[in-house]
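Session log. Operator J.P. requested a structure for one protein chain; no other inputs attached. Running the standard single-chain path with token output.
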Amino acid sequence: MKILLGADTYGFHLKEAVKQYLLNQELEVEDVGISDRLTETPYYHIASEVAKRVGSNQEYRGILVCGTGMGMAIIANKHPNVYAAVCESIYAAQKSRSINNSNILTLGGLITTPQVA
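Structure written below.
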């Protein structure tokens, strides 16, 4: 399984923390962007890129981070075979996967701490 990561400016720092955690767990990770805090790629471009790839390959999962996680989830869920869930707790993330078969986790960089993420 490969995990695709993406974030906008508001989610950049949390994405970087999540990426480091996943790499420390020796998981296969691909960072779709943004590559620095100053990049101004709109959240919907990043969300669409990750969602297209996750929706077309069952071996992929995604993690998207914006300010609240909601914008990324709205855009991602417009793509076929994508089930994106905004999660603000470990319990919600576990249930979104086990009950709803979510394949993209969206997080809020302004809401979620790196420890919870």
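Operator note: The CA atoms of residues 16 and 88 lie 17 Å apart.
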